[in-house]
Specification:
Strand content: 35-45%
CATH class: Alpha Beta
Low-confidence stretches: none
Shape: globular
Largest sheet: 5 strands, mixed
Mean pLDDT: 86
Number of domains: 1
Length: about 110
Amino acid sequence: MILNFEKEYLRQLYETGTTSDKKHRFQPEIVRAYAKCVYRLEEAIVPEDLYKYQSLHFEALVGDKKSLYSVRVNNQYRVEFSMSKVELNQETVETKVTICNIIELSNHYI
């Protein structure tokens, strides 16, 4: 999937493991687990590929987050994201791209 980070701190955590935003500081084990989850999102070709990693607990959210999906970082945190598909069909060339927009690294119980 093609990744898009809605907030800069999410990109920084994935790329460097740290963030300049003092509000979004996490323990090193949370940052490592977050990076692993985002890597799994990036390597997935189709959303169904995420089901093979049972530890991610890939799920569609309900309620006020109905259009979002999530994967678990650990028992306390999850990565929330949305997905959109782009399909181009030109005579012989067929392109399917899934864009994953990472929205939040959130405390699962807040």
